[in-house]
Amino acid sequence: MPSAEQEEITTTVASFLAARMPATAHASVFVTPGAEIDSALFRECAELGWLSLGLPERFGGVGYGLAEEAMLFRELGRGLAPGGFLPGVLGARVAAFAGDADLAASIVSGSVQVALATRDTTDTDDVSVLHAAEASLVVVCDAASAALYSIADCALAPIDPVDGSVRIARGTLGGSVIASVAADLDPVFIRGLVLCAAMQAGTAEAQCELGVAYAKVREQFGKPIGANQAIKHRCADMAVRAEGAFSQVCYAATALDGGAEGFAEEAIIAKYYADEAARLNGEASVQIHGAIGFTTETLPHRHVWRAHTMARALAVRPALLDALVPRP
Asked: Which parts of the sequence belong to the Acyl-CoA dehydrogenase/oxidase N-terminal domain (predicted)?
């Protein structure tokens, strides 16, 4: 069961998103080129502690654990929040643990935005970069280390994204490393997997809620479609997947916070399972909505886009599987 503080984090973030960043209000950004998020609004979120929630107090952070950060990121996923909050959190940790207090402070204040680089495969230098449009820095991390680069020194070109609310570029990193940290000092990559999984779990929960709500009001042959056993089963499966995904996220976060043996494997499992839950719940929700679920104006469709985008964040699917079960 979540603690009172964790419940407060969830309630506060959900209320802010509903009031200031409702998913229905930024629909146009999914299909129209432009900024992901207003810079002033991003800084306002930073002032609320969203980028510093899990940063140790000695670095100027709030000092909560990964479990509390996961509560925040679940709501960001559920609410389809735009903006580079994940790379901001990871980039701030790299700067802080590398000893650059000024850079860490600039990132957690929201004045410096960070993009997230993911290597397309394990045997190439090519990267895909999320949230590249507004960022001046890019963070790249793996199981061994994490580093910050200046985005101006990288050879990147924008591409047409699946999810128009997350601007993507592709190319190669360049220039000198601005800050770096080894995983034994701070496992940035593993933390990122858990937080990304939390976002995907939030997406899975949102798809379940949307599908169930629609099944209650959409009528066919004089009764709600939710009265049909096939629809009931889809809704039940969505609920089980969503609950399972966030349960694994919480388990992985608690394991890392407690320094338990095998926390890295638990984080990988959380990311893999949450990606699957978000994808499968998206398929089910769209099917329940019928033809309207395929239109870009609807939340189920946009959640599907976001799920596909975040499934490639930090590590592509084959890399996750190889990390769990190395190839002979």
From this structure: 3-89
Residue from 130, 97, 298 nearest 213 by CA: 298
Instruction: State pTM to two decimals.
Output: 0.94
Detail the DSSP E strand segments found in 143-215. Answer: 145-150, 155-159, 168-172, 179-182
The Cα–Cα gap between 305 and 193 comes to 19
147, 139 contact by CB (below 8 A): yes
| b (16+ CB within 10 A) / e for 224-242 | ebbeeeebeebbeebbebb
Per residue, the 3-state secondary structure of 69-92, as one string, reads: HHHHHHHHHHCCCCCCHHHHHHHH
230-272 pLDDT, tens digit each: 999 999 999 999 999 999 999 999 999 999 999 999 999 999 9
Q: Taking the CB of residue 72, how many other CB atoms lie within 10 A of it?
A: 26
CATH T-level topology, domain 188-324: Butyryl-CoA Dehydrogenase, subunit A; domain 3 (1.20.140)
Instruction: Provide the 8-state DSSP code for 199.
Output: H
Kindly state the tokens that stand for 64: 């909560």
What is the DSSP code (8-state) at residue 201?
H
Q: Are 171 and 206 within 8 A, CB to CB?
A: no
For the chain, the structural domain boundaries read 188-324
Instruction: Report pLDDT digits (tens) over 36-86.
Output: 778 888 999 999 999 999 999 999 999 999 999 999 999 999 999 989 999
Residue with tokens 């591409």: 159
* Residue 150 exposure: Cα atoms within 13 Å on the Cβ side: 5
CA distance 92 to 46: 12
- Of the listed ranges 101-115, 186-200, 212-226, 260-274, the least confidently predicted one is 212-226
Q: What is the dihedral of CA 171, 177, 178, 179, to 10 degrees?
A: 110
